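Why does residue order matter? Because the sequence determines the fold. Keep that principle in mind as you read this record.
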Amino acid sequence: MFNFLKKSFNKKKARRVTQEYAYKIDSFLLPAEGEIQFANWLNPLVKSKTITQSEINFYKKFIRKGDLVIDIGANIGDTTVPMALAAGKEGLTLGFDPNPYVYKILEANSKLNSSKTNIIPLPYAITENESEFFYNSSEASFANGGIQEIDKGYHGKYSLQQKIKGIRLSDYLRENYSKELNKLSFIKVDAEGLDSTILKSVRDLIETYKPLVIAECFTKSTKEERYDLYNTVALPGYKIYKFDDFDENASVTLISNKEEMTNWKTFNLYAEYSA
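Structure:
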């Protein structure tokens, strides 16, 4: 009973009081990867991440050793690390997240498993134009949130004191990773409803290199916004699928038209080039 009350109090505090939370390093012994370490954030509102072989195998369906892969909205690295394990030490995994609270944990995770991964954490939002933005969250510990041009509002009442930087991904990659671009095979976006906007800003990369694209259909998305996300990823040669989880055995459903985007409240989808 005491532990329950303590956990409840800590969660309430995290929702109302902004403070730093440390991390702990957990180890997982996997059949194919061996021992994998992961820095779990000790924020009471964040569930601890477990790294599984089945999740890594999900990414291995689409990512080859040596590939360039990109995680936009990487958070603490819960998808970045499995992606990077699929790409291997010889590959390159870029993890973008502008939230300074989660970025510290992402940075810690980028330094673990260095013999098996090559992760570069980057503290930027991906935007249509290079600029600075406010960052807001629905709770004080900033376990979630998103960018906006005005302070307070859509993502919640808690706001970072400092603005965060938004960059154009296409320009950034061509300036800094031009030699790796021809190996671009995978882009994952999870940006609190801004997925379509971000994907439009990198349409030239998608059309040129034909990577697999993962996005989230956000809970609050309107019918029009869902249609827009579908149209954004339904490029020539691409097929779109809803998938239930980042797991090699997860159920996969073909999405044949934009109207089907309203069949589920929130879900992940991937668009795969098959022409």
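Residues 68 and 184 are 5 Å apart (CA to CA).
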